[in-house]
Input
Amino acid sequence: MIQHLNHLNFKDFGLVESERNVAVEESTAEEWKTLTLNWNQYTVYQAVEETRIINNSGMAVLSVSLDGIEYRSFYLDKRVHLNANVFFYLSPFYKEQATVKLLSQEEPELICVQTEPATSLVQSSMHVTEIYTLFYHEKERGFFFAGESHPVLELTYVDQGTVHSVADGQELILEQGDMVFYGANQWHMQYADIDMAPRYVTLSFEIEGGDLDALLNRKIRPPQAAITLVQQILREQERMEPYAMDMIASMLTQLLLILLRHQAPTGKLMASNSMNSENAIIRRAQQYICDHIREKLTVPVVARMVDVSPSYMTALFHKNLQISPGEYIRRIKIQESKQMIREGNLNFTEIAAELHYSTVHHFSRQFKDKFGITPTEYAKSVR
Output
């Protein structure tokens, strides 16, 4: 991506002249070397000594590097003084021609000529190209999936409960908030303990560029930012507003990049202590809500159980999940009602009472608002 040229972000490579300095150059015109820039060809140089560069005509981009490998690109709208030994090349801003002028006592060393567009102007190493399936599974207790393999990548995220994941002879126990990725053509199976009815997301997709090997077939505890993206993806699927699939593909790409960055060793802490503390509070609150969903839950009750104030917990939920804790409780409660309907042990009035809805009509209205069908219609579909 092309960056704005200023003193701060260019300081490692040289100086940027003040825009107030509009005096005519003292050097004669003959001392300046004029370069004509073409879109499909650019020349890489290394400055032997301080080199001055100014734009002459058209719009130009200056790309600079300290090692000749990693380049940063700047829109050349000011005069610059490149330090000695800096690698650089110049290219048009777009497909039009441009010219620039260089001035130095000793000409820069020519390193190579590239006969292709300056790829550093667009830096996208990975993106999701196809999404094949996106399912929210609400499994019966003790479900067993015999296994499959397919030529695309797959993500599984456990929203509630526990899921056993088996791939290539390795078994992982995925708990609420855990994630696993399966590689293309990797056989995998999933099952739950006899007393467990988990809810989880599966998403199959393809990417262009990038390498997900660091994520495959391992139990991942994603940062809260990645969990938030999973929830946003599900909301996009529910609403299916214009460009929903584009939004989902974009958010999945961002989720993958967050996970890859989270796994990469950087020599720095991946999150501050305060961020880790926030994530821990949210996860404890989510776990308590799921474990006690058939009890009468309020925001003050949950906040007290995780040792924070209701206002602070509300702020954390809004910051990290983009919903209030009250809305989160309502979502988990209505999801639990589907499990209770599938079990078939209680009628709708009893389910409403068990989940502490004020009336069965209130329960039915919220169910239809959430799923688009009535509890009666859902019960018929699963029996």
The longest strand covers residues 126-138. DSSP finds ten helices and 19 strands in the chain. The mean pLDDT is 86. The two ends are 55 Å apart (CA to CA).
